[in-house]
Design brief:
Elements (H helix, E strand, L loop, with lengths): L7 E6 L7 H12 L4 E5 H4 L9 E3 L1 H7 L2 E6 L1 H14 L4 E6 L14 H10 L3 E5 L2 E7 L2 E8 L2 E6 L6 E7 L2 E8 L1 E5 L7 H4 L11 E7 L9 E4 L4 E6 L6 E5 L3 E4 L5 E6 L4 E5 L5 H9 L5
Parallel strand pairs: 1-2, 1-4, 2-3, 4-5, 5-19
Antiparallel strand pairs: 6-19, 7-8, 7-18, 9-12, 9-16, 10-11, 10-15, 12-13, 13-14, 15-18, 16-17
Length: 295
């Protein structure tokens, strides 16, 4: 981690997670006793007893002030903050604490909270850099719309729509035509998310690769393909008048596509910096989450 001392820690809890309240109060006291300012995300502060002395900010203002973000919740809460940090351009590490079963991203358990937080502040924590995606939706009649994603960019059909047709390119080379419910472009981190449900491979996070996974393809020969992370993926939906298609980013944001749109996906300029506990490996997490240890 950075050698610059951390003086402000951003704290974000899952929306309406009442079970987090006593822990938020304890963390605020614990940080204050060490001369560190806790900056609470607006909705998170609403879970706590009122205090005029408390530092509160929305997500964008919070990431501009802090040197570390502590997330209390699940992977979805962490993804939301990772996207926000990526848009800020600041290299802020994230420490994710899970309130339910162990998460793929929020790996730290509640009993591990303070040892992990202390190690993070002291610069002793293990920080992994995770590949992120930069997606540009190019529309002939408008400027390109940019989004950042940790897990995946997904192009899919509307709920009641027929199958959609997609032309997929890697760089300037045509790779395949897909007629399917959609297509997932996933990072190694996202390989255990929607990609896994759609039959794609699990990719260990240190592997520098992307995976393209068709969703329920009409032709069984359309299989997932792993490509170098340095490649740019371009997807052109072939849409008729009755077709409806959407693009989503980490399942957090998205919009409807129009005829003539092109989605270009490449490696983001900066990675996500994820603080991981020293108590377990990635494969231990896989065994627990996917029940690989059961006979």
């Amino acid at each position: 981690m950075t050698a610059v001392p951390i003086t402000h820690v951003g704290i974000v809890a899952k929306s309406r997670l009442q079970a987090a309240t006593p822990h938020l109060v304890e963390v605020e006291t614990w940080l204050g006793s060490r001369g560190i300012t806790a900056v609470f995300e607006t909705a998170t502060a609403a879970l706590m007893p009122a205090s005029s002395a408390r530092a509160v900010a929305d997500k964008q203002a919070l990431v501009a002030r802090v040197g570390l973000v502590l997330v209390l919740g699940g992977d979805g809460t962490l993804l939301s903050m990772a996207d926000c940090i990526a848009h800020s351009g600041r290299p802020i590490p994230i420490l994710g604490v899970n309130f339910g079963s162990l998460g793929f991203l929020t790996e730290v358990t509640l009993p591990e909270l303070y040892p992990a937080l202390e190690a993070s502040l002291a610069g002793r924590a293990r920080v992994e850099e995770r590949l992120m995606l930069r997606a540009a939706t190019i529309r002939p009649s408008a400027s390109a719309q940019m989004e950042i994603a940790v897990n995946d960019v997904v192009i899919n059909k509307a709920a009641r729509s027929r199958l959609i047709d997609l032309s997929v390119f890697v760089g300037d080379e045509f790779v395949m035509h897909v007629r399917a419910d959609g297509l997932i472009i996933a990072t190694p981190t996202g390989s255990t998310a929607y990609n896994l449900s759609a039959g794609g491979p699990v990719i260990e996070p240190s592997v520098d690769a992307l995976v393209l996974t068709p969703i329920a393809p009409h032709t069984l020969s359309n299989r997932p393909i792993v490509i170098p992370a340095s490649a740019t993926v371009r997807v052109k939906p072939l849409m008729g008048e009755r077709d409806e298609a959407f693009v989503t980013f980490d399942g957090q944001a998205g919009f409807e596509l129009q005829s003539g749109d092109e989605i270009s996906v490449s490696r983001a300029d900066e990675p996500m910096r994820l603080i991981r506990p020293a108590t377990r490996s990635y494969f231990e997490v896989l065994r627990e989450k996917l029940n690989w240890g059961q006979r």
